[in-house]
Each structure stands twice: as structure tokens, then as C-alpha cells.
Amino acid sequence: MAFKGMLKDEDIAAALKHCAAAESFKHKEFFTKVGLAGKSTEDLKKAFYFVDQDKSGFIEEDELKLFLQTFSAGARALTDKETKAFLAAGDVDGDGMIGVDEFATLVKA
């Protein structure tokens, strides 16, 4: 598991269960429940690189769609509506992607 040692397995399971239904994902609630909201900026940068599957230095829309699967392979994909809302919340500079600093800001917001 990518977040081993950074997040508790039971927190990940509870956070995923909380947003298991389509259209139930709320990034602020998820970050709090999973334990990321209280992490240091350095830890958030590490978390960013787990989500940045193609290692481009940005989290693109297709990676956001599979965001929950970063925490558990069996988790659902986000809906298009959830993905677009998540991207809009994190993409401060309007380039259509979330950079590492934007991600850290999004999690801490």
C-alpha cells in the first residue's frame, strides 16, 4: 500500500466507506477522515507523488478520477462530476492540472 506508515489502515478504510456511493465524495471530508489534513507539508508532497501515477509532476483529470484507488485498489472511480469538482477546487492557476503546491494547499484548506 502506497500510504503504509503515513496513514492508518483503519482511517483509510473508514474514509473509503464514507464515500463508497457515487456522488458522495467530498475532498475536504475525505482528507480529514483519512488523516491527510493534519500532515506536514513534506508528507503531503509525498502523498502527491503517490497520486501522480504518471510521475509528470501534476495530477491530471484521469488520475483524479482514480484518486480513491490510490488508497485501495478495490475502491471505486470518482464520477465525472466528482472529478471535475475536485479538479476545480485544487487547480488554482487554471492550467487543468493540480501541482504539488496546489495539492498541499487543497488538503490543508
Strand order of the largest sheet: 1-2
As a percent range, the share of strand residues is under 5%
Global shape: globular
The description of the largest β-sheet is: 2 strands, antiparallel
Low-pLDDT windows of residues: none
Arithmetic mean pLDDT: 95
Q: What is the β-strand count? A: 2
List the quaternary state of the chains.
single chain
Pfam families: EF-hand_7 (PF13499)
GO molecular function: calcium ion binding
Keywords: Calcium, Metal-binding, Muscle protein, Repeat
Organism: Coregonus suidteri
Describe the fold and architecture.
- It is globular and about 35 Å long.
- It is built from six helices and two strands.
- The model has no long low-confidence stretch (mean pLDDT 95).
- It has helices at residues 9-18, 27-34, 41-51, 61-65, 80-90, 100-108, and strands spanning 58-59, 98-99.
- The longest helix is centred in the middle third of the chain and has 11 residues, at 41-51.
- 50% of the residues lie in helices and 4% in strands.
- It is mainly alpha-helical.
